[in-house]
Design goal:
446 residues; 14 helices; 23 strands; disordered C terminus; binds shikimate-3-phosphate
């Protein structure tokens, strides 16, 4: 079913109950598409996230020579790489809404011997690209940001041979780290990155999966890759995205009578900080059936938590929960006491300025929330009322506030929901099954 642009919800009076299969991880899907596209041979990919963002990256990789053979479902296919012999793309590469797609592909394309151009939608064209242009330029890459806004997309890249560097990231960003490491893997010598805090390590784990020589220091802050590499294709199953599971974790915690089991959720320690934060707030969460291959994953059961309370969120925890902060702010609005979120200025350069958009929408629903330069402060405990809200072109803002609407007085309407398809195309179906037309879903649950 095509995604609706306007979605309304009201209080889920029966609670949210049942099981939800969480679609594939977005960050891992982008990286699998990129690395598999360069590899020698074919690999079976299972549970790829068929969202607009990841499909854009997959199409871009087809443009440079990868081949896709459909499997038994859209998320399962065979990816045949170009054996490290990519060809120049015939047209400009559309990255849609995806900062990850653009920044990671720029790292690869900067080191390949042809010209390319990367462009994106309105939101992506206003996001900072200087953060990848700087280290890639030090490596000798010829690339420029030609957008109307300085330092922004479209990117024009004249790829070629690069020099290895030792680079200290100015901000804790897995995208910047990965852009440098991907360029480094195609460069003769050892490229080293130091990050100020541990960020998601999917690139490093996939390097290990594909046998790419990469080392990580014990504290996780220093990473080295030695190139040029020869990647051999290897089958992979992508776990569910904890950033998508996050919406149901919060919804079940705040809606009385809820009990949800979320299946096959990625539990990478650099990503599952939301579990620790919610548990600190008094949530009732249990993790079971953990599988420990490459990327750990398991099932999570979450029940309504009648006594959520505020917490302090900041420091090295932030990169681990960066995409979950809007929905954690919603949880905070339903918790007794104050929640303070600090050290999260990176939120201002996401798909929207998520400090402003989260606080604005919380206040519109009657919550006590205040903006800070690098975070926000929310005092919860009073009831929220439904109203008409904007997504501000941001999929995570749309989904977070639909979750708030599931325990608000009256109807909550979110406008601009089409972009939910960039990360979670089946979200509306799951929302309908669990909350809007629950009887139909209960019949489906054993
Ligand atoms: C991502 C890293 C994060 C995150 C984004 C996906 C990735 O961005 O917000 O949704 O896949 O590397 P930064 O690394 O820029 O913080």
């Amino acid at each position: 079913m095509a995604a609706s642009d306007t979605i309304s919800v009201s209080r889920a009076i029966c609670g949210l109950r049942g099981a939800v299969c969480i679609p594939g991880d977005k960050s891992i899907s982008h990286r699998v598409a990129i690395l598999g596209a360069l590899a020698r041979g074919s690999m079976q990919v299972k549970n790829f996230l068929c969202s607009e963002d990841c499909l854009n990256t997959l199409r871009a990789m087809e443009q440079i020579g990868a081949r896709i053979t459909p499997g038994d479902a859209p998320e399962n296919f065979t990816l045949t790489g170009c054996s490290m012999q990519p060809n120049a793309p015939q047209k400009d590469i559309d990255c849609g809404n995806s900062g990850t797609g653009m920044r990671l592909m720029a790292g690869v394309l900067a080191a390949l011997p042809f010209e390319s151009r990367l462009f994106g939608d309105r939101s992506l064209s206003s996001r900072p690209m200087k953060r990848i242009l700087d280290p890639l330029s030090i490596m000798g890459a010829r690339l420029e940001a030609c957008g109307e806004k300085p330092g922004c997309a479209p990117l024009h890249i004249c790829g070629g041979t690069l020099q290895p560097i030792r680079y200290t990231l100015p901000m804790a960003s897995a995208q910047v780290k990965s852009a440098v490491l991907l360029a480094g893997m195609l460069t003769r010598g050892t490229t080293a990155v130091h990050q100020p805090a541990v960020t998601r390590d999917h690139t490093e784990r996939l390097f290990a999966h594909f046998g790419i020589p990469c080392s990580v220091s014990e504290d996780g802050l220093d990473i080295e890759v030695t190139g040029p590499v020869d990647i051999t294709a290897k089958d992979i199953t992508i776990p569910g995205d904890i950033s998508s599971a996050a919406f149901w974790l919060v919804a079940a915690s705040i809606v009385p009578g809820s009990e949800l089991t979320l299946r096959n959720v990625g539990l990478n320690p650099t990503r599952c900080g939301i579990l620790a934060v919610l548990e600190r707030m008094g949530a009732d969460i249990s993790v079971h059936r953990i599988h420990e291959e490459g990327e750990p994953y398991g099932d999570i059961t979450v029940r309504y938590a009648p006594q959520l309370h505020g917490t302090e969120i900041g420091g090295a925890e932030i990169p681990n929960i960066i995409d979950e902060i809007p929905v954690l702010a919603v949880a905070a609005a339903f918790a007794q006491g104050t929640t303070t979120i600090r050290d999260a200025a990176e939120l201002r350069v996401k798909e929207s300025d998520r400090i402003a958009t989260t606080v604005g929408n919380l206040r519109a629903m009657g919550a006590a929330a205040e903006e800070h330069d690098d975070g926000m402060c929310i005092t919860g405990g009073s009831s929220l009322h439904g109203t008409t809200l904007q997504s501000f072109d941001d999929h995570r803002i749309a989904m977070s506030f639909l979750m708030a609407g599931l325990n608000a007085e009256g109807a909550t309407t979110l406008q601009g929901c089409r972009n939910i398809a960039t990360s979670y195309p089946s979200f509306e179906d799951t929302l309908n099954e669990l909350a809007r037309y629950p009887r139909r879903h209960r019949e489906l649950i054993p």
